[in-house]
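Hi Q.,

Before the meeting this afternoon, I wanted you to have the zinc ion prediction in hand. No need to reply - just skim if you have a minute. The sequence and ligand are here:
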Amino acid sequence: MATQDFYAVLGVTPDATDDEIKKAYRKLALATHPDRHPGDVEAEERFRMISEAYSVLSDPKKRAKYNMQRRMPEALDLSQPITVQGARDLLGSVIGDVFGRQRKQRRRGRDIRYTLTVSLPEAALGCEHTIEFEANGACSTCDGTGTKPGGKPPVTCPLCKGKGEVKGEGFLSRWTRCGRCAGTGMIQIDPCDKCRGRGSRRERRAFHIKVPPGTEPGSEKVVEGQGEPGKFGGPPGHLKVTINTRKHDWLERRGHDIHCEIPVSVLDATTGASITVPTLRGSVSVKLPAGITSGTKLRLRGQGVPRTQGPPGDQFVVVNIETPKLAKLSTTQRERVQTVLGEFDTLTREVPEISPKVAKLRDFLAE
Ligand SMILES: [Zn+2]
Ligand SMILES: [Zn+2]
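Predicted structure with the ligand bound:
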């Protein structure tokens, strides 16, 4: 069942003539047309409703059925809901392409894309950056219309009739961009001197971008209406900023946790020294348990990426005990390392408790 009385929607009585209905519809549809109220959802819905009412009441068969339905509310609903585009098309078919043709030319401006690269801690903890770039902005002289102040508004291109392209003749007929209007479908009669009718000018633009804490790499921030200006009164495009994250030397993000692998000397691992570990929030001191083995994972609670709700993630530190590397040493250096390690090895044979597992294997093999 239609939610509203179609006669009431059009403001006519149930015995209105076809002419009265058409007149009422024209007046209301033009007044509520979405092109006159860009972004106004309520007007759009009224425009749709008016069109729906008219599509039923203008058709004698549908109107008769609707009249019956009005008297018997339980009867089947025969009216088809109409879309906004359908409503636009209906108006175009009734009063010609007043808005229809113009609408095609009112183009939304192009989006501007910008990639902002920040460090891993900046993306994780949030930051602010000023970005600067050169782009097309609305011409200040003509306010982006392309028309000289006080001049005549643009007209539909007579060659392509506003289509922006022209169809050739004969069997080679295909659509070609219209040269007269450069494919825009419109011609400026009084072009603005400053921008030569384009409505836009190259300019340097700067924006302050806030990157919220916990921003995922590759996420997009949209600054609405800050793209290139629209054509022929169309709305501007958007500025779309993609947030990229630079690779960190030590830290790697996995969801809300941070992972890192920290090299530890044999001495520090043996004695259980305090080591310094980089985190998102600066470096922190971590006390190693004495005798820690390579591959042990330590957890630094709350040192991960902040969440919108709840505690932040953690940082996991994998301890990697570094074996001495001899390859790039001079002969003297190498001999020193070998002497020291040789002494150490002798000691482990005297005191098996230093390396119990090595001693156990040695005993096993000696049997
Ligand atoms: Zn201008
Ligand atoms: Zn043209």
